[in-house]
Amino acid sequence: MGVFFALLFVLLASRIFYIQIVIRRMILGSVRKFSEIKKLRGSILTSDGSVIACSVRGTRVYKRRGRTFKRSEINFLKKSGILLPKDIKSKGRSLLSSFVPLAASRILKKHLASKLEFIPAQKRIFFSGKEYKPIIGFTNSDNVGGAGVEYYYNRFLEGGKPEIVEIDATGKLLISDDPEVLRAKGNDVVLTVDSKVQNFLYDEVSKIVGEMSAEKGYGIVMKPATGEIVGMCFVGPQGHIYLKNPVISDSFEPGSTFKIVTASAVLEEKLVKPDDKFFCENGSFQFSGITIRDHKPYKWLTVKEIVQYSSNIGMSKLAAILGRQKLYYYARAFGFGNYTGINLPGESRGMLKRIKKWSEITPYSMSFGQEISATPIQIIQAFSVIANDGILIAPRIVRFVRNPDGKPLRRTKVTQIRRVISRNTAERMKDFLRAVVESGTGVEAKIPGWNICGKTGTAQKFDRKLGKYSENKFFASFCGFFPEEDPQILIFIGVDEPQKQHYGGSVCGPAFNEVSRKIIDYYGIPPSQENSPVALNCAGGKMPPNRDNRL
Length: 551
Description:
The chain has 551 residues and is α+β, with helices and mostly antiparallel strands. The protein contains 17 helices and 20 strands. The protein has helices at 2-30, 71-79, 102-112, 133-136, 148-152, 154-158, 195-211, 246-249, 259-268, 303-308, 312-322, 324-333, 362-367, 376-387, 423-439, 504-523, 533-536, and strands at residues 33-37, 44-45, 51-63, 94-101, 116-126, 163-167, 188-191, 216-223, 228-235, 277-279, 284-287, 290-293, 300-302, 391-393, 398-402, 408-411, 416-419, 453-463, 468-482, 489-496. Strands 2, 3, 4, 5, 7, 15 and 16 form a seven-stranded mixed β-sheet that branches. The longest helix has 29 residues, at 2-30.
C-alpha cells in the first residue's frame, strides 16, 4: 500500500510539473495579443499638386531585453547613425531610435536581428519652407497634429482607426518584419492655396518687411466670389513653428480700411449722396476734448472724395449722420467682431465693443478704424462684400479631402453668409475705391489698363503704457481687388511698425502692385479697357513693363 501511494504521489507530482511548466510554456508561446499601429498619415497638397507635407514608413528600434552588444556591434550601430543611450550595456529593453528609414532598418536586421526589435513607425516630412508653416502647422512626436491644417484635419489625415496587428507574449510582431506590409494610409488634404501665388506673395511681403525694417508682415490673396484663399503668409520673428496662424489670430486697429463700412452704411441707408459735400475743417477738428486730424488740410470734400483722400474728419461727420446703432449694425454685418469661420484653428474674433461700452467719441473714432480691432482675414472678408456686389462670403483654405485612391471624400463649399448692402451700393463703393487707386491715397497700387479698387490703411498703434496713441508706431495696410467690372482677385497686405515710412499707400501699395502684376501675368487676366493702348499691347493679359523693372 505504501508503494502504491508513493507511486501515486510521483505521478501526481509529474502531472503538476507538466501542467505548470511545460503546458504553461506552450500556452505562453502561442498567446496572441493585439496592438494598434497608426495608418500612414495622409499628405497635404496645394491646389496645383505640390506636396508640402507627407509621411514615410520606417521603424522604431529597441534593444531586446536580456541582450548585450559587443564592442564591434556598438561601433556598427554608431556608424549606422544610432544615438546609443547611456545604459547601453544594461540587459534591460531600451529604445535606440524613434525612427530609422527602411533601407537602414534592413541593414540593421541583417547584422543584428537577434538583438534588436523593430516596430513599424512613421515620420512627417515637410517639403515647404517658412511660407507655409503658419498654414499647415506641425505634428508632435506621436504624429498628431498640433496646429494649423495638421490639427484641424487630424482625424482625416490619420484616416480613422489604427491598424490592428498581432504580437506574441514576448512583444514580437506576428507579421513580416518589413513595415511596408502595412499598406493602410490616411486621407490627403488638398488646399485652395496655389504654390506659385504663395511664392509671389511671400517674396513681396518679405521684401517690404525688410525694406521698411518692420516688425511683421501679413499677406492674403483670395478669390472673392468663392472665398478660396490662394495665398496666405506671415513674415515675422516667431520662428518656424506657430501654435497659431498670425494671419487669423493677430488683431489690430484696422485704421482707414474700415472706412468702407462707414461709407457703405450711409449710402445704403440713403442718408447721403455720393456728391454731397462736407467741410473737412482744413485738416484739424476739435471735438469733445480730442483732436481729429487729416494727413492733409482739406476743405470741402464730397462723400466720394472723403473715401478717395481718406479724410478722418469727413468720415467722422458721416458717422454723426449714421448714428451709433447703424454703425454698430453694419460693422457686425461686414463681419467685424465675429469669426470668419475659416477652416483653421486659433482664429480670433477681434474686438467690437457693445454700444453700452462706447464713449461719447467712440462712433467718430470707429468711423475711421480706431477703438476696434480686426484680423487680416476679417479685413479681407469685409472687402469681399464690395467685390461680391454686397454679399459676405466665408473664406476657406481647404478645397477637399480625398481618400488614398484619389476619390474626394469631403469638399468645402462656397458659403454666402448674408447680403450686407445692395448691389447698387456696392457698385458705388467700387467707383469710390477705384478713385482711391486712380488719384487718391492708393496710387502706388495703380496698374495702367486694369481697373484696381482698393483702400489704404494707416493706423496709429495704441500705447497702453502711455495711455494714448503712439506718434511713431503704425500698422500700415492696403486691401484691394481687380478688375472692377469682374473682381477675380482680392489682396490684403499689412505691415506692422514700418520704420522708414508709415502710410499704408506708400508702404503696402508697391507690394500690392507687384503681387497683382505677377498674378495678372500668371492667370492671364485681361485688361479692363479693351480698346485702350495698354490692352492692345497686352494680348492674353501679359503685363506692360514695370516702373522699376522688378518684374
